[in-house]
UniProtKB/TrEMBL annotation:
Protein name (database record): TlpA family protein disulfide reductase
Highest taxon in the source lineage: Bacteria
Domain Thioredoxin: 250-406
Cited PANTHER family: PROTEIN DIPZ, THIOL:DISULFIDE INTERCHANGE PROTEIN DSBE
Any one GO molecular function term: oxidoreductase activity
One of the Pfam families matching this protein, by short name: Redoxin
């Protein structure tokens, strides 16, 4: 009898263990509508989930309108789904019950949670703000908008340009600032209200606005764990930002950039190296933590593969959150692999004003990530472009690409 009881106990334990190990197989594949909750607001996002061939991990995309942004490989551990976003020091950890995930979106520092928001996702819901047919409006916000964002806590303001297209009630586009853009925004106009959001792992943003009687917009922006701004916008076909090539410049007495920094494998890279001699060189000031840098790298990496034989080189100068190689080099390597970067990326320091001033003392200031420096065959700086207008900005991105290619062709053709 004792033997029978023993085998029954073993069978029960095995059954329990089997239930625990099969939790990941219950995660349905397809679109999940998720929300992050803060200050009484829900920041909606869409996740598209696929099971990997190994049957133990998942590929997950954050869907922002036309963008499908791949997150790091997700997996189950202790009956919770883990969605890491290592480059951005963030993760989602959620438990699964039927078709609902509940947990937290957390920001990390050296692996420890420093802040978080409630996260919940439901399978099979593929709308961001409103189900099909629910949002209705006679308003149309298509066009360019002169916009002002204000931080109520500090009084600081940022002049921006909104650029949107609307089809029916659906809206997509972005806001451009002097130092970059808010990437792919997607949402709806319903009645006299505008709703937009985006999620790229680093940034979770919710924009709301009321359309005023005169057609202007007044609203608020909830960003990340605690950032909050108010904003106002007026339609303006001529809206534009300060010239991005005039914001960052060489100090008097300088006409060149010089540096020597180690790459992720410890090898020193300098513009004096033979590979750069008599070539056009592009310096990409970036960070692995920077979404706008990610957009620029998505452009530069394939561009370099197609154009390096023309006598053009690119060097990435990474300013990371830590100047410790053991902390930052793995992230730089992950970034290089993720975006198939075929050019050197060096660890130049931390993303602080003091560190950038020490690393690049010839510049007035590194105002934005990314910042792109164009150097001619003689080693002289020809142009410095602050920020990057990514694909989410539409015509602004197309204009950047055209101007970029024009400048490179001009410098390559010079004797």
């Amino acid at each position: 009898m004792r033997a029978i009881n023993f085998f029954i106990a073993i069978f029960i334990i095995a059954g329990i263990a089997g239930c625990g190990s099969s939790a990941d197989t219950n995660l349905k594949r397809g679109i999940w509508r998720a929300t992050l909750t803060r200050d009484g607001q829900q920041l909606p996002l869409l996740l598209d989930i696929f099971e990997n061939p190994n049957g133990k991990s998942y590929t997950i995309y954050s869907v922002n309108g036309a963008e499908r942004l791949r997150l790091d490989t997700a997996y189950f551990e202790k009956d919770s789904l883990h969605i890491p976003m290592e480059l951005f020091d963030a993760e989602i950890v959620a438990s699964l019950e039927k078709d609902v995930l509940k947990g937290r979106y957390s920001r990390l520092k050296e692996g420890a949670v420093v802040a978080s928001l409630p996260f919940e996702a439901t399978f099979g819901q593929n709308f961001r703000f409103f189900k099909d047919g629910e949002a209705k409006s006679k308003k149309d916000i298509t066009g360019k908008w002169s916009t002002l964002f204000i931080n109520p806590a500090t009084g600081d303001s940022t002049v921006s340009v909104g650029n949107f297209t609307q089809k029916g009630s659906e809206v997509e586009g972005s806001f451009l600032t002097p130092t970059g853009d808010y990437r792919y925004l997607n949402g709806n106009v319903n009645g006299d209200s505008l709703f937009l959001s985006t999620f790229d792992g680093s940034n979770a943003m919710l924009f709301k606005a009321a359309i005023q009687g005169d057609g202007s917009l007044k609203g608020a922006l909830w960003s990340g764990i605690k950032a909050y701004k108010t904003w106002e916008a007026k339609t303006n076909p001529e809206a534009k930002l300060p010239d991005a090539t005039k914001l960052t410049f060489l100090k008097p007495g300088f006409d060149k950039v010089d540096f020597s920094f180690p790459d992720a494998n410890g090898k020193l890279v300098s513009l004096k190296d033979p590979r750069f001699k008599d070539k056009v060189v592009i310096l990409q000031i970036l960070g692995s933590w920077c979404p706008n840098c990610m957009d620029e790298t998505n452009f530069l990496a394939p561009w370099y593969k197609n154009n390096k034989e023309r006598g053009v080189e690119i060097v990435g100068l990474a300013f990371e959150r830590s100047d410790k190689p053991e902390v930052s080099n793995p992230k730089i390597k992950k970034m290089i692999n993720r975006f198939n970067m075929d050019y050197p990326v060096v660890l130049a320091g931390t993303n602080t004003d003091e560190a950038t001033a020490k690393a690049l003392p010839m510049l007035n200031k590194v105002m934005s990530y990314p910042t792109t420096i164009f150097i001619d065959k003689k080693g002289k700086v020809r142009e410095i472009h602050t920020g990057f207008s990514g694909p989410g900005t539409g015509k602004f991105y197309e204009q950047f690409v055209e101007e970029f290619n024009g400048l490179i062709t001009k410098m390559v053709d010079e004797k």
